[in-house]
Amino acid sequence: VTTAFRLGELAAAVGGEVVGDPGFEARGIRDLEHAGPGDLSFLLRAAYLDRLEGSRAGALLLSPELARGLGGERPLLLAPDPGLALAHLLAIVHPEESPVPGVHPTAVVGEGCDVDPAAHLGPYVVVGDGSRVEAGASVRSHAVIGRRCRIGAGAVIHPHAVLYDRTEVGERAIVHAGVVLGADGFGYESRADGHHKVPQVGRTVVEEEVEIGALSAIDRATVEETRIGAGTKIDNLVQVGHNVTVGNRCILCGQAGIAGSARLGDGVVLAGQAGISGHLEVASGVRVAAKSAVLQEVGESRDVGGVPAIDLRRWKRQVAMLPRLGELARRLRALEKRLERMERREE
Amino acid sequence: VTTAFRLGELAAAVGGEVVGDPGFEARGIRDLEHAGPGDLSFLLRAAYLDRLEGSRAGALLLSPELARGLGGERPLLLAPDPGLALAHLLAIVHPEESPVPGVHPTAVVGEGCDVDPAAHLGPYVVVGDGSRVEAGASVRSHAVIGRRCRIGAGAVIHPHAVLYDRTEVGERAIVHAGVVLGADGFGYESRADGHHKVPQVGRTVVEEEVEIGALSAIDRATVEETRIGAGTKIDNLVQVGHNVTVGNRCILCGQAGIAGSARLGDGVVLAGQAGISGHLEVASGVRVAAKSAVLQEVGESRDVGGVPAIDLRRWKRQVAMLPRLGELARRLRALEKRLERMERREE
Amino acid sequence: VTTAFRLGELAAAVGGEVVGDPGFEARGIRDLEHAGPGDLSFLLRAAYLDRLEGSRAGALLLSPELARGLGGERPLLLAPDPGLALAHLLAIVHPEESPVPGVHPTAVVGEGCDVDPAAHLGPYVVVGDGSRVEAGASVRSHAVIGRRCRIGAGAVIHPHAVLYDRTEVGERAIVHAGVVLGADGFGYESRADGHHKVPQVGRTVVEEEVEIGALSAIDRATVEETRIGAGTKIDNLVQVGHNVTVGNRCILCGQAGIAGSARLGDGVVLAGQAGISGHLEVASGVRVAAKSAVLQEVGESRDVGGVPAIDLRRWKRQVAMLPRLGELARRLRALEKRLERMERREE
């Protein structure tokens, strides 16, 4: 069964306005290259204007600014913030299939658990003793929830995620497949006879509306908490060490890593494969370039890059100098020769 | 039960030729250090010729070139391409134990699925509604297959792999343990009030004969497809962002990462821990050195390295200059002093 | 139920000594910021002395040296090695809840397995034919053990870990959630018609007292063994390629990677996101800085850093020179002008 959505209704849902036929029925949302005559497509950047040509899209979402000068061959949905509008429309036109509430007969639920009747536990889910799963939360196939954990209302735990004991996941958080929350922090006392394990008796707390990408790991603290602030978004294969605090609304891109006991403020952005050393502070608003390594405190909001990371513009200037090193060395050698000749003439 | 293989038969299987006793019976294939008198060993590079001394190997696979000058103490299997021959012989002498076709009683198969009778579903496998598992495919213990997925004929899905809804895996592809295919791409519209999730309604398509290493993640596209081309080989812990296209027969080594919407041509090689920025093109045949970061388009086949990645030879020259910086600075200082002295004398 | 521990008993357990009331009852161990009047806290470094002020901790663990000059307001537990003492005390005051021995009814155990009655197999564990699980070993929910594996006495395999066939895990080793041991090494013979898979018929061996962090992958060897030496500690998301040998008591930090056939001695330390190229030797005691890449043999114990990694002090000097490049270029240009003027005057 395919449902179709009238363009006028979609416009109303996002506070937009239709130019052309509001009765156009969108069966799907596709990009300009793949959209057919029954689809709504979108144009978010002037740079992609040339992709319009040849597109078979039946209707188009864009900003009033970009719409100027476009011919009237297809209905337009004008939205003041088309990026945000697209996010809303995708949720309407291509809704996620939510699982039915209830506990699958193969789920193993421990003693003293509090599973809300409006929560979903999928096949082969394991929930340890004393854990709570709140209303509307969905724990998908094979997820393993430890003892005395809390899964907040509306949170989604995808297949094969593992939460060690006492982990807390906030309301509407999304934890993707294979994520491991609350594993032992990497703590040892190293002596001549080897590395002695320091028991990690703290926990991991993930606040509300955090999203954690597939196969990321957030270790639990030595004695207190590793904490991910509300609204922070974490990509795949990201490592967060024990005792770390990540502020609210941060962005940690794929394969970024944060070593133990580092403290990130709010709105910090780590680009892909960036790293943060242990035991240091990164101020709110700092943005770290891809592949960079922050090896000392960054005390105020700014952009940094390089290994070790420095002010981003300075790093870029350094990088721009590197290709000139050979030339500088040649010029230096030439100067030395000229000076030598002059000195010889002087004698 | 150990099976033994006559050297003459093995030679015939790989188009090789025996020097010495074709009746030699190989019970296993071992390296030169560990092979015993009942084993076949192999010598693929002249650099390892000194390892022959002291080896107890009963027989030896190598090229006719390397065999020249070797004494007759053990039978030899001469193959024009001994590397490829070794691959074939390992499959013959140490065959993989294939699981028996059939669905394990603990597997949970959704409605409207099409599971070929010649496919294997292991213990605790979960398959969502409307999915298809083709002949000879093997889905191992605990793998979770979403709704409306396709597992091509002869493909192997190892334990704990997770395929989100609508993921497609081609014929004879191999997906290793813990791999996550089709998780939500990392897409948000960031506004003053936070990061708004852009629903990811596309899918991930893995073409035939792709192999994906343990714990790698390939996100699904925002609206269309993330696609891995036929014959591409991906190592462990590799990250592929949403909307990415990887061409045919690429090699992505361990912990490499590709950010969203990048497009790689055919035969691209990313060495270990290399990264590709989002929204850029990397031409067919490009090879990226270990730990390097491609931050802008690479328009033609060549080797690149560094952060940001540049022509590999240029990068190596730059690196070679770095240890000389201190010396250059000292020479510059000396020149300044000499020139100052001359200028003073001139006055 | 909360148990309390008398300070005098705790001191005796770690060979320490109490200053003040040995009858103080510690209900938990917390850090200085969070400890209450019923808790024992700890002070391991002089740098944190200022955190004492304002701490509500009821008692304090520290060295006799740090205790000098402290007022007598709370009982002190003086220990000659307070770091090690803390590790011991955490295990006493916050003991791990060990699972009860026995096989969960949902565990699927293959034919010819040897599971010790004093071992624990959790819900939905799968163990392949011919495997052995020794006394006191604990295989947690959903872990998948292949055929002919060995899990040593007292080892812990956390949820969702996967061991491919023939993997061996030593006594008291700890394998965290999502770890994959023994997946196919990344081996192909690349020819014009594509990449031909080299069957990986070796295995992975993890020796005693190794700990492996969440979501790390250690591939099995092509024909022999990939081996992790006794007492080595591996953090999360670490990649170890096929045929690698890691010595005893090494430390591999988060997201580090070791390419195929590399050989590390004993006590090697890889900091976060460091990488080691394939087919090379790294001597015992070598320490590699974060984000660095070892691209050639390191023949003796020393600290290295950079890409490619060189002597750490040399690398730091190079890095210190980089910000001066612009200045050097300007000084060089100035010299050229001055020299030119002089040469013109000479004419």
Task: Tag the structure with descriptive keywords.
347 residues, 5 helices
- Coarse morphology of chain A: flat
Roughly what is the average pLDDT of chain A, rounded to an integer?
Answer: 96
Using a beta-carbon cutoff below 8 angstroms, give the protein chain pair with the largest interface and the number of residues from each chain: A-B, 63 and 61 residues
Subunit arrangement of the protein: homotrimer
Proportion of residues in helical segments of chain A: 10-25%
In the sheet with the most strands of chain A, the strands line up as 8-11-14-17-20-25-28-31-34-37-39-40
**Radius of gyration based on Cα positions of chain A:** 27 Å
Distance between the termini of chain A: 98 Å
Biggest sheet overview of chain A: 12 strands, mixed
DSSP strand tally of chain A? 40
Low-confidence runs of at least 5 consecutive residues of chain A: none
How much of the polypeptide of chain A forms β-strand, as a percent range? 25-35%
| Annotation field: number of helices of chain A | 5
What is the fold's blueprint, element by element?
Three copies of one chain form a homotrimer.
Chain A: E1 5-6, H1 7-13, E2 17-19, E3 25-26, E4 28-29, E5 39-42, E6 59-62, H2 64-67, E7 76-78, H3 82-93, E8 102-103, E9 108-109, E10 114-115, E11 120-121, E12 126-127, E13 132-133, E14 138-139, E15 144-145, E16 150-151, E17 156-157, E18 162-163, E19 168-169, E20 174-175, E21 180-181, E22 188-191, E23 194-197, E24 203-206, E25 211-212, E26 217-218, E27 225-228, E28 233-234, E29 239-240, E30 245-246, E31 251-252, E32 257-258, E33 263-264, E34 269-270, E35 275-276, E36 281-282, E37 287-288, E38 293-294, E39 303-305, E40 310-311, H4 312-321, H5 325-346
